[in-house]
């Protein structure tokens, strides 16, 4: 069965001047416009495509990558509004509608919001909502302590940042355990710290094996920020220089910068380390 708003692997039925038609099963033949057809594509070939509706509400395929698929949460920018709602930049030719009734607060053009994409049962169209709570999984979780998970930074809180774990559950990163710049909408890897008796989930951005050097990692980051994002101290620097700067052994320094590298925070060069630019 074809899944609207998701990736599907479909078989090429026939080629025409303006693209190819794919076997959409119960949805009939689905056009993949010419500009998205890969070279040397022939009938019976299988293609992985995203299925949605174009501006004229015709079902269509694309090889472009949308910023969100149905069943996912994402942080997206409002690019227009009309009498029916707000429109989000979806990364596709057609923007994604958030009807007025699905806006937690009135959306303002130019601002970005955390939303959830779904198929409206009444209209059979893909829409989004900023009333995300009802779409989060409330069932008991089975995460293991230390398990690696995908995080979406959702919103700041008094304690730190609320996050969405694995596109399914609420979680929290405590402010005093954040040792890198983060922003709402950012996607990161994280690790389960604790699943509390009330079902709430605490996460951290560092794997358990590196918890003991968090303070050192933060010190390194702060020193780099003070120096324009670069530090002429690598894993080849003399131990006495490292100790003078950070008050630690060369071994612990190498562990710290290794952890920062694995977390995607820094790049390590021959003679220096650099903060990675935000994407």
Rg (CA only) = 23 Å
Counting H and I runs of at least 4 residues, what is the number of helices?
3
Strand order, biggest sheet? 3-2-1-4-5
Order of helices and strands: EEEEEEEEEEEEEEEHEHHEE
Unreliable spans are none
Strand fraction equals 35-45%
- Number of E strands: 18
Average pLDDT over all residues: 90
- Strand count, sense and closure of the main sheet? 5 strands, antiparallel
Oligomeric description of these chains? single chain
Percent of residues in helices: 10-25%
- How far apart the termini lie comes to 36 Å
Structural class by SSE content: mainly beta
Shape: globular
Task: Give a description of the structure.
- The chain is 12% helix and 38% strand.
- By secondary structure, it is mainly beta.
- The strands form four sheets. It has a five-stranded antiparallel beta sheet, with no helix packed on it.
- Helix 1 crosses helix 3.
- The model has no long low-confidence stretch (mean pLDDT 90).
Question: Could you outline the blueprint of secondary structure elements for this entry?
Answer:
Blueprint (H helix, E strand, L loop, with lengths): L6 E10 L2 E5 L5 E5 L12 E8 L5 E4 L10 E9 L3 E4 L7 E4 L12 E9 L4 E5 L18 E9 L3 E6 L3 E6 L12 E9 L5 E4 L9 H13 L3 E2 L7 H8 L3 H13 L3 E3 L4 E3 L4
Antiparallel strand pairs: 1-2, 1-4, 2-3, 4-5, 6-7, 6-9, 7-8, 9-10, 11-12, 11-14, 12-13, 14-15, 16-18, 17-18
Helix pairs in contact: 1-3
